[in-house]
Amino acid sequence: MLDIHKLGDEVLREKCTEVIEFDNSLKMLEEAMYETMAQAGGVGLAAPQVGVTKRLFVIEIPREGIKKTFVNPQIIETSVETHKALEGCLSLPGLEHEVERPQRVTVFAQDTDGKPFTLSADGLFARAIQHENDHLNGVLYIDHLDEQERLHMERLFKKREQARRKAKRHG
Q1: Nearest to 89 by CA among 2, 13, 14, 7
Q2: Is residue 97 assigned to a domain?
Q3: Which is it for the CA torsion 106, 124, 91, 31, positive or negative?
Q4: Where residue 143 sits, what CATH number does that domain have?
Q5: Whose CA is closest to 137, among 8, 30, 18, 31?
Q6: Residue 98 and which of 9, 113, 126, 128 are 20 to 30 A apart at CA?
Q7: pLDDT in tens, 119-133
Q8: CB atoms inside a 10 Å sphere around CB 8
Q9: pLDDT digits over 20-74, tens only?
Q10: Is 120 within the bounds of a domain?
Q11: How many domains does the chain have?
């Protein structure tokens, strides 16, 4: 299992670079990311969350039969209709907030063999694509909130992390 970087780690704010080499190490990273995401209980995980500044993310939504890897993704179309829903993030564990996003997206990407594909998604799948794609540009879901709410979420995260570290030291 890979370590998941948390809010405050610089790697989460970096703009990722394009994947150029589609080799075995990319497939190994993909496999490790799926495993890490499953262990952490998430539906999506982007490479920078595990310290790799490459344009790659994975999404798995078992109840919808979705398991997909996106390499060098580009969102090429979004719907005018938007939808508000709770979002969480493995880099801000235990926190959620409502975020408004387009209801549907069309994305162009590659798989780990370098084969290009175009995919349209809606609902949770579309939301996950947008959320993970933001990570590749150094954007977190809390950045979509107004400043007051974002600062509140950051303070809440810091408090929880301090309590977790304190419990770990004394446990």
Answers
A1: 7
A2: yes
A3: negative
A4: 3.90.45.10
A5: 18
A6: 9
A7: 999 999 999 999 999
A8: 13
A9: 999 999 999 999 999 999 999 999 999 999 999 999 999 999 999 999 999 999 9
A10: yes
A11: 1
Own/partner contacts of 138-142, CB < 8 Å, gap of 24 or more, are: 138/12, 138/13, 138/14, 138/15, 138/16, 138/48, 140/7, 140/12, 140/89, 140/91, 140/92, 141/87, 141/89, 141/92, 141/97, 141/99, 142/7, 142/92, 142/97
d(CA 115, CA 44): 21
Element (H, E) at 156: helix 147-170
Residue 1 maps to a domain: no
CB 105, CB 121: distance < 8 Å: yes
Domain of 90, in residue numbers? 10-170
C-alpha–C-alpha distance, residues 11 and 9, integer Å: 6
Backbone dihedral region for residue 72 (phi beyond 0: left; psi -120 to 50: alpha; all else: beta): left
Six-digit token pair at 19? 């994947």
31-52 burial, b for 16+ CB within 10 Å, e for fewer?
ebbbebbeeeebbbbbbbbbeb
- Residues taking part in catalysis: 132
